[in-house]
């Protein structure tokens, strides 16, 4: 069993070494019928051209932390995170504002006598016109901000 494993490792290492060192040349020629042929062995009877392999230089370079692209990406990512936090904070504020408007509308819609306390501690009751104006004001604010 040990010998079989060693033989497998030997074959694997040998084949990988040979595959790296045996880069074949490519030859091309056109026969009398106009058909183009490619081969790794030149043909003596035909006019053979050796194909030069081109190196692909379009491979992407690795991105480092110092690259301009990475810096721009990090700035955009940070700006997006800050915008998201700002929107979340605004949403929380807006939610509190909307909840307050809802409470005021509920008080007005409930009916009855509604009053405000003056700085001196006296109650000032609102008449129907004032209640309608307050309801209109809160409804408009709710539609503008909370929907």
Quick structural gist:
The protein has helices spanning 2-21, 68-110, 128-145, and strands spanning 26-30, 36-39, 49-51, 115-117, 123-125. It is an alpha+beta fold and 147 residues long. A three-stranded antiparallel sheet has the order 2-1-3, with no helix packed on it.
Comma- or semicolon-separated keywords:
55% helix, two-stranded antiparallel ribbon, alpha+beta
Taking all residues together, what is the mean pLDDT? 80
User: What does the main sheet amount to?
Assistant: 3 strands, antiparallel
Order of adjacent strands in the largest pleated sheet = 2-1-3
How would you describe the shape? rod-shaped
The class by helix and strand makeup works out as alpha+beta
**Spans with pLDDT under 50 lasting ≥5 residues?**
none
The N- to C-terminal Cα distance equals 76 Å
**What oligomerization state is this entry in?**
single chain
**Radius of gyration using CA atoms only:** 41 Å
Please tell me about this protein's structure.
- A hairpin with a 5-residue loop joins strand 4 and strand 5 (123-125).
- The strands form two sheets. This protein has a three-stranded antiparallel sheet with strand order 2-1-3, with no helix packed on it.
- The model has no long low-confidence stretch (mean pLDDT 80).
- It has helices spanning 2-21, 68-110, 128-145; strands at residues 26-30, 36-39, 49-51, 115-117, 123-125.
- It is α+β, with helices and mostly antiparallel strands and 147 residues long.
- The protein is built from three helices and five strands; from the N terminus they run αβββαββα.
